[in-house]
Design brief:
28% strand, globular
Length: 250
């Protein structure tokens, strides 16, 4: 059994272009928690800033993913490309939704409890294990590419003028996204916390900031509330969504 909780918060923005999927619920405001039995997919999605109908794109993206019949035999890449094509089709039907796009960061747990992670864009997955945090996903962004080339430093990534430029994501009408799907070293261990978040959190909190809060002896929902508040206190001007998943022995 797995316990999953999350928060999605519009922050200082007038509306929320983030959404989260927990169980069969697509949540666009507030908090949610559930106990989940595999197989399942849980995810965060962020409507791409500057594109029309970002809030619709993220919500629709997760509704389509919710309806995937996931198992270890599922051809996940094909199913996610179908989600992309449905977003493109819907977005192309009128000018108000044209080129609506959404990032995706998700974990998929199959019936054998093998964990895969999915990434499209710059939302993130971290794993907190044994008191240490590690970023699992790789940002699909220009600043990540520049950092890997050695053109900019880690510190410069957070303030770079092009930090909001990401590679094609779900719904892009001109280029297909690169859907990263990888195994998470088999199964989760007891005590692990998998943390999914949008850039409204990760752009303002360092991994050490996140680690320090996850180490606290508080309930998981309380720690997520602290993460959201700390991001706001540090000047987050974006929507913030964060999900935590833990493995529970039955």
């Amino acid at each position: 059994m797995y316990y999953c909780c999350g928060i999605t918060e519009k922050g200082t923005m007038p509306h929320n272009e983030d959404a989260m999927l927990i169980g069969k619920n697509v949540v666009i405001s507030g908090a949610s928690e559930q106990e989940l039995q595999p197989p399942f997919i849980t995810a965060v999605s962020d409507g791409v800033s500057g594109e029309l109908s970002g809030e619709l794109a993220s919500k629709m993206c997760l509704e389509l993913i919710r309806d995937i019949k996931y198992s270890r035999k599922a051809k996940l890449n094909e199913k996610l490309m179908d989600v992309h094509k449905q977003l493109v089709k819907f977005g192309s039907e009128n000018s108000e939704t044209y080129n609506m796009q959404a990032t995706l960061c998700a974990i998929a747990v199959d019936e054998k409890e093998n964990v895969s992670f999915i990434n499209v864009g710059d939302s993130r997955l971290y794993r907190f294990r044994g008191g240490q945090i590690r970023q699992i996903s790789r940002d699909q962004s220009l600043v990540q590419l520049l950092y890997e080339e050695g053109t900019i430093t880690q510190a410069e990534r957070r303030t770079h003028v092009h930090r909001n430029i990401i590679f094609p994501v779900l719904g892009n009408t001109t280029s297909e996204p690169k859907i990263d799907i990888s195994s998470l070293d088999g199964c989760m261990e007891y005590g692990d916390v998998l943390l999914l978040c949008t850039d409204g959190l990760s752009d303002y909190l360092s991994p050490i900031d996140i680690q320090e809060i996850l180490e606290l002896p508080k309930s998981l929902p309380a720690r997520l509330e602290m993460l959201v508040q700390k991001a706001l206190d540090k000047g987050s001007s974006d929507n913030i969504t964060v999900i935590a998943v833990v493995y529970c022995e039955e």
